[in-house]
Amino acid sequence: MANFVYLSKERIRELEKELMDLKTNGRKSMANRIAEARAHGDLSENAEYDAAKEEQGLLELKISKLEDLLSRAQVIDLTNYPKDQVHILSTISVKNLNNKKVFKYTLVSPEEADLEKGKIATSSPVGQAFMGAKTGQIVEAKVPAGLLKFEILEIQ
Q1: What is the sign of the dihedral through the CA atoms of 83, 90, 156 and 132?
Q2: pLDDT score at 95
Q3: Which domain holds residue 44?
Q4: The domain that contains 125 carries what CATH number?
Q5: Is residue 89 left, alpha or beta, with left meaning phi > 0 and alpha meaning psi from -120 to 50?
Q6: Tens-digit pLDDT profile for residues 123-152
Q7: 70 and 123 inside one domain
């Protein structure tokens, strides 16, 4: 049986919208490109046709992966999580005690992680260190660059 993937409602909506766009606009556009390439004559020596068919395969693979992800998606219900501890979907302010900089992170599933947007995976070394921590607590995360120490300033 497939493993569940925990996602926020917003992320599920984004993925559903992307999937619908790929199935409608993406497939229509791909069919047009293949028809156009087919019109260029002999298919056995038609590189444009071969490239379009390969792109079609990649499009279908992406659609298949999105369908699989959405079929396993579970919305995270936060009602059972303690408000004073860091958990998935917590937004936290932390101070990196190594460089004294303050960061704001939201802990998310690996499928939603995006460090540029301040979303870190609960399964990452830093995310694991934060899980279950409380305000004022010092946590340590072992990363390839060494040991990072953080103070939890605020949990939202």
Answers
A1: positive
A2: 95
A3: 5-75
A4: 3.10.50.30
A5: left
A6: 999 999 999 999 999 999 998 989 999 999
A7: no
